[in-house]
Amino acid sequence: MANTRIQAITLFIILALVCAFVPTFSVEEAEAKSLWDTCLLKISPKCALDIIGVVFENLTITDSCCHDLVQEGKMCNDKLIKYIADKPLLIANEKKYLKKSDDLWTHCVSISPTA
């Protein structure tokens, strides 16, 4: 079971990285660079994986990662999830992923001491 979880998370990381360097998808190269430069540098790789896992794999997130997410900001969270959800393999469920992202944001804001 844990092996499947690791494989799924690894798949999403690979997908995100590949898509970041292939501008032929729906997000332009400048937008991908902006996402990496302004958002993903503000959050730990583990928390980024947790966020992706919650939205795309129904996993859970720690309170400390919720705090990091709130510190990162809603715009960055929305950009990251939209960027991944826009990919051809995921676009059919994009609305579901965006809703889950909003639910995650609401949850994290409610438990974050800086909210």
Automatic annotation (TrEMBL):
It comes from the Eukaryota. Keywords: Signal. Residues 38-109 form the Prolamin-like domain. Residues 1-20 form the signal peptide. This is Uncharacterized protein LOC130499653. It comes from Raphanus sativus (Radish). The lineage of its organism: Eukaryota, Viridiplantae, Streptophyta, Embryophyta, Tracheophyta. The gene is LOC130499653.
